[in-house]
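User: Here's a structure from my thesis project, written as C-alpha cells. My advisor, Dr. K., wants to see whether a designed sequence matches the one we expressed. Can you design one independently, without my sequence as a hint?
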C-alpha cells in the first residue's frame, strides 16, 4: 500500500505491455496528467523489464511531480547513433526521481562501432539521462548502467541533490562519463558509486556551488573540473567542494584541465578537495593548463583561464604512476593561492619514487607533503 495525503493524486502507470515495451503514449499521458495536476503527484513505473524509446518529460508543471522507477527500463534500439538523448526530465520545479530502478542504456553494440576517441568520424550517441533546467530536484536510489554516451548530464539546474546513485559501465567503454554538469548552481552528489570508462564526475563551465561527498570512483578517469576554455561563450566556475571520496584504479584522480590558446578568458575559483583516499590512481593530483588532446590547439599560446583559490588537503594512498602531484599552471596566468595540505602519496613502481612537480605556481604549504612539494623536475602533461 502506498500512502499519501488525500491531496496527492497517485498516478500508477498502467503499462500496456506491447511486447514488453513501455507504451510511450501511456507514459506520456500519465506524466502529462501528473504535470497538469494542481497538487503534487506521482507516476510509478512498476517492477519488471521494459524497453523504452527516446522520451522527453518536460514541464513546466502545476505542482511537483515525482517519478518512481521500480523496474528496469532498457534503451530501445531505435535511439542509437545520431540521437543525442534517451530520457530527458526537464523544466520542472520540485521534481523527484527515485524507486531503486535501473536505466540500462544498452551501450555495448554502440561503443564498438562508434569510438570517438579513436576516430573523428563518429556519430553522436545518446546521453542516457538528461536533467535539463530543474529547480529544487531530488534524484535518489537510481542505477544507470551501460550508457551509450554520458550516463547523466545536468544542465541549467538550480539546487539539485543526487543521492545514492549507482553508475556502472565497463572500464573500456568510451565516453561513458558518470555525471557531467554545466551552467548549474547548487548541485549535490552524495553517497554514490561510479565505475565507468571515462570521468566519474566532470564539471563543465558555469558550474557553481557543487558539493561532492562520499563518492567512490573507479575504474574511470577520476573527478575532473574542465576541460575549460575550448569554446567562446564559457562561464566562470566557482565553489567546488569534493570531500571524503575514494578513487580506485582510475587513470586520473583530482584534475583541473584547461586548454592552451583558450577561446575565452574565464576564472575557475574556490575549488577544494579534502579527505580523499587513493588506491592505485594514476596522476592523482593534476592541474593541467596545457590540456590539448589530439593536438587540436596551439600549445604555444598559454591558457587564459585563471585558476584561483584552490586547495588539496588530506589526500593519501597509492599512485599508479610516478606523477603523484603535477601542478602545471599557465605561464600567461600563473595559478593564484593554491594550498597544499597533508599529502601522502606512495608509488612502488620500478621507475619511482613518486614526484611532485610545479610550474607557474608557488603553492602555500600546510602540514606535511610526501613527495616533497615542488621537488620534481617538470615533465610535460599527458
Ligand atoms: C532545495 O531543494 C530541496 C528539494 O526540493 C528543498 O527541500 C530545499 O528546500 C531546497 N533548498 C533551497 C535552498 O531552496
Ligand atoms: C570526512 O569524514 C570524516 C569521518 O566521518 C569526518 O571526520 C571529516 O570531517 C570529513 N571530512 C570533511 C572535509 O568533511
Ligand atoms: C580568493 O580568496 C580571497 C580570500 O579569501 C578572496 O578575497 C578572493 O575574492 C577570492 N578570489 C576569487 C576569484 O574567488
Ligand atoms: C595499478 O594500475 C595499473 C594501471 O594503471 C595496473 O597496470 C596495475 O595492475 C594496478 N596495480 C594494482 C596492484 O592493482
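Assistant: Designed independently from the structure alone:
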Amino acid at each position: 500500500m502506498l500512502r499519501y495525503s488525500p491531496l496527492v493524486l497517485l498516478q500508477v502507470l498502467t503499462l500496456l505491455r506491447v511486447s514488453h515495451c513501455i507504451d510511450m503514449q501511456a507514459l506520456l499521458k500519465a506524466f502529462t496528467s501528473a504535470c497538469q495536476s494542481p497538487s503534487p503527484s506521482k507516476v510509478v513505473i512498476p517492477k519488471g523489464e521494459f524497453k523504452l524509446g527516446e522520451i522527453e518529460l518536460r514541464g513546466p508543471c502545476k505542482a511537483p511531480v515525482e517519478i518512481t522507477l521500480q523496474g528496469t527500463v532498457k534503451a530501445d534500439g531505435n535511439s542509437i547513433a545520431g540521437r543525442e538523448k534517451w530520457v530527458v526530465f526537464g523544466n520542472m520545479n520540485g521534481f523527484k526521481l527515485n524507486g531503486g530502478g535501473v536505466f540500462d542504456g544498452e551501450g555495448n553494440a554502440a561503443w564498438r562501432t562508434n569510438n570517438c576517441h579513436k576516430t573523428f568520424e563518429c556519430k553522436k550517441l545518446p546521453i542516457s539521462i538528461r536533467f535539463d533546467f530543474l529547480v529544487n530536484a531530488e534524484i535518489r536510489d537510481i542505477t544507470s548502467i551501460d550508457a551509450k554516451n554520458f550516463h547523466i548530464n545536468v544542465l541549467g539546474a538550480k539546487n539539485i541533490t543526487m543521492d545514492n546513485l549507482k553508475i556502472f559501465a565497463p572500464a573500456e567503454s568510451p565516453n561513458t562519463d558518470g555525471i557531467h554538469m554545466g551552467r548549474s548552481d547548487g548541485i549535490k552528489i552524495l553517497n554514490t558509486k561510479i565505475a565507468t570508462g571515462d570521468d566519474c564526475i566532470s564539471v563543465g563551465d558555469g558550474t557553481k556551488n557543487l558539493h561532492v561527498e562520499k563518492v567512490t570512483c573507479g575504474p574511470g578517469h577520476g573527478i575532473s573540473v574542465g576541460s575549460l576554455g575550448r569554446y567562446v561563450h564559457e562561464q566562470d566556475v566557482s565553489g567546488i567542494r569534493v570531500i571524503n571520496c575514494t578513487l580506485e584504479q582510475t587513470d586520473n584522480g583530482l584534475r583541473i584541465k584547461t586548454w592552451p590558446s583558450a577561446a575565452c578568458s574565464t576564472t575557475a575559483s574556490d575549488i577544494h578537495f579534502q579527505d580523499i583516499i587513493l588506491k592505485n590512481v594514476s596522476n592523482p593530483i593534476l592541474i593541467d593548463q596545457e590540456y590539448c588532446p589530439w593536438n587540436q590547439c596551439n600549445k604555444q599560446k598559454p591558457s587564459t583561464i585563471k585558476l584561483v583559490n584552490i586547495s588539496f588537503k588530506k589526500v593519501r594512498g597509492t599512485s599508479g604512476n610516478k606523477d603523484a602531484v603535477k601542478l602545471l599552471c599557465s605561464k600567461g596566468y600563473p595559478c593564484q593561492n593554491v594550498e597544499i595540505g597533508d599529502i601522502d602519496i606512495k608509488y612502488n613502481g620500478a621507475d619511482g619514487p613518486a614526484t611532485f612537480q610545479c610550474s607557474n605556481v608557488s603553492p602555500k604549504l600546510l602540514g606535511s607533503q610526501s613527495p616533497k612539494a615542488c621537488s620534481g623536475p617538470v615533465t610535460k602533461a599527458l
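When you compare it with your expressed construct, this may help: Residues 24-36 form the longest helix (13 residues).
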